[in-house]
Design goal:
This protein is α+β, with helices and mostly antiparallel strands and about 400 residues long. It contains 13 helices and twelve strands. Helix 1 packs across helix 11.
Length: about 400
């Protein structure tokens, strides 16, 4: 019997019991669909998280006020800002690996533009902040040196603010009021999207640092030289952990903290946040892969069970084949082909089902759908291997039947 004859005979046997064959494939279908959906959705989710982290900027370190103790009472992070403009200047001067150290003050404001108004976050920054965040101006221009140093009454809008105040109109050149202080809109920032924590980065207005501190944030909200945050960008190729240690040591020295005293600031390495989230995503992917693997094993057991039943039901057929000249190898190949065909067809259906589920989930969540062709090929090949492994024992058992006993039993 040739291989094509064995394949044709196997397909005829599967068609003769179509419903049973379909139910047998169900485990493989579910297992492969789970693998494909897990890989596609997981890849899309990781890409979404990575894109959000990239939107924060590369090689970033954020320094914020830390725990402060006053009169024996711990006030918690950010309760009293011990960071100043001078800290930012010292960091850029004394830590060689630092490219930018941008001080930031911020507060909630109400913006009025004609008959429209919008509540948002106001951030007082220098132009270095946009360099650190890799955040270009989409329309208009950045702050000039004179506007930054003298405190010009100019503003840059995030896209969410621009849309809610001016709709589709170009706001550049328009006048707005921020806490009753008039400002001229000189630009609209490029779109940044959401952070990994779900906040809208485009819902913000940027003002020159001095202007924000003196005219908008107010002396009751920000001390003369204090800042709410220092955003540090480390040069490409430099060690972030080493830069973080140098910054921490410098700030402790500047703030005159005794050895063993608690830091009055916090240094956050965004690369570590990214690595932690990536590790969490990887762990979840491994868990889902294990679940999918169990489904494939269950599907393989189902194939083995049905093939063993098939051997019992077709004992007489096997005896007749052997009696008219079929070799044990021919019987072995036929049953292996049946098991492998079941698994491969189940794998192909599982791929289609998995892609459909992944697309539905990605569309609902707003994630990109990422699936490598190699994963699809690997899923189908693996399902075929499951079929071979599951059908091997029933095939060997069928090939070892004695023709006389098979005819008598059948």
């Amino acid at each position: 019997m040739t291989l094509s004859d064995a394949a044709r005979s196997s397909l005829d046997a599967l068609r003769a019991n179509a419903l049973r064959s379909l139910l047998t494939m169900l485990g493989i279908v579910i297992g492969v669909a789970a693998v494909i959906a897990m890989m596609a959705v997981g890849g899309g989710a990781r890409e979404q998280v990575n894109e959000q982290i990239r939107s924060l900027g590369a090689n970033l370190i954020q320094i914020v006020p830390g725990n402060v103790t006053s009169g024996g009472v711990r006030l918690g992070a950010g309760q009293s800002s011990m960071l100043t403009d001078d800290d930012a200047v010292s960091i850029i001067r004394q830590v060689p690996s630092v490219q930018v150290a941008a001080p930031v003050v911020r507060g909630g404001v109400q913006i009025v533009a004609g008959a429209s108004n919008w509540s948002t976050a106001a951030m007082g920054v220098t132009s270095g902040y946009f360099e650190a965040r890799e955040w270009p101006v989409e329309t208009g221009r950045d702050f000039s040196t004179d506007e930054s140093t003298r405190g010009g009454q100019v503003a840059l809008l995030g896209q969410t603010v621009a849309r809610n105040l001016f709709g589709s109109d170009n706001p550049v050149g328009e006048s707005i009021r921020v806490r009753n202080v008039p400002f001229e809109v000189i630009g609209v920032m490029d779109k940044k999207g959401q952070t990994v924590f779900g906040s809208d980065q485009d819902d913000v207005i940027f003002l020159p640092l001095m202007t924000a501190r003196q005219r908008v944030i107010g002396t009751n909200r920000a001390k003369t030289r204090s800042v709410n945050q220092i955003t540090v960008k480390v040069r490409e190729g430099e060690n972030l952990a080493l830069a973080e240690a140098e910054i921490r040591s410098l700030l402790r020295q500047r703030h005159r903290l005794q050895e063993g005293a608690e830091d009055d600031f916090q240094v956050r390495n965004l690369a570590e946040i990214s690595a932690t989230r990536e590790q969490s995503a990887r762990t979840l992917a491994m868990l889902l892969a294990a679940v999918a693997g169990v489904s494939l094993v269950v599907g393989g057991i189902g194939i083995m069970n049905i093939m063993l039943v098939s051997v019992t039901e077709r004992t007489r057929e096997i005896g007749v084949r052997m009696a008219v000249g079929a070799r044990p190898r021919d019987v072995l190949v036929q049953f292996l082909i049946e098991a492998t065909t079941l698994a491969i067809i189940g794998g192909a259906v599982g791929v289609a089902l998995g892609l459909g589920v992944a697309k539905a989930v990605a569309d609902a969540a707003g994630w990109p759908l990422l699936i490598a062709p190699a994963v699809i090929v690997l899923a189908v090949v693996f399902s075929g291997l499951v079929g071979v492994a599951s059908g091997l024992y029933p095939a060997i058992r069928a090939s070892r039947l004695d023709p006389v006993e098979a005819l008598r039993t059948g």
